[in-house]
Amino acid sequence: MLEKTAAGIPFCRLSGEEQKQLATALHAAKTEAYISSVDHSAETYECNGWTEHDLMEAWALPLFNFPDQRECIPYRDFYQVGVDAAAGIHLGEGDPRVAARSVPVAGRYEQAEAVIVIGHPGEYLLLEGYLRSLLFMKSPDKSKRLLAWLPVPRY
């Protein structure tokens, strides 16, 4: 299925069995609260390659904002807190920004699965794949793209 994702094959073109596998995996890995936030206004999702600029224009989940500010945070701010360890902000051990610090910068970024994005152009929200997005940002290979499942609006 990874090859199909990398080739940008839309969810609707996956076989019925592949769609069931993805749905089963989602329900096994995530809570109902998380699943309910998936964008149901989209008929399907398609896989696109995002640049650093695309990612920096997106939003991050409220859980990555400061405890007294529980609203979505610009991804740019989410990322900056992760790289600015001197800011004196304590990040919990489960925070992907902490995990990303321990991964050495490799010469080439290799992505095993696409991140999931909801919303629409100008208001995209990264729903899943924070550690992958941070490792993508650390990569010195600026020609590489972050594979992202984006909702395709119904018309």
Question: If you had to describe this structure to a student in words, what would you say it looks like?
Answer:
The protein is an alpha+beta fold. It has one domain (2-153). Helix content is 34%, strand content 19%. It contains 7 helices and 6 strands; from the N terminus they run αααβαββααββαβ. The strands form 2 sheets. It has a 4-stranded mixed beta sheet. The two termini are 27 Å apart.
Helix content: 25-40%
Strand order in the largest sheet: 1-6-4-5
Number of strands: 6
Main sheet summary: 4 strands, mixed
Instruction: Give unreliable regions as ranges.
Output: none
Overall morphology = globular
Q: What is the topological layout?
A:
Blueprint: H1 2-6, H2 16-29, H3 32-36, E1 42-50, H4 52-56, E2 59-60, E3 73-74, H5 75-83, H6 96-101, E4 115-118, E5 125-128, H7 130-138, E6 146-153
Key features of this structure:
155 residues; alpha+beta; 4-stranded mixed β-sheet; two-stranded antiparallel ribbon; globular
Short summary:
With 155 residues, the chain is α+β, with helices and mostly antiparallel strands. It has helices at 2-6, 16-29, 32-36, 52-56, 75-83, 96-101, 130-138; strands spanning 42-50, 59-60, 73-74, 115-118, 125-128, 146-153.
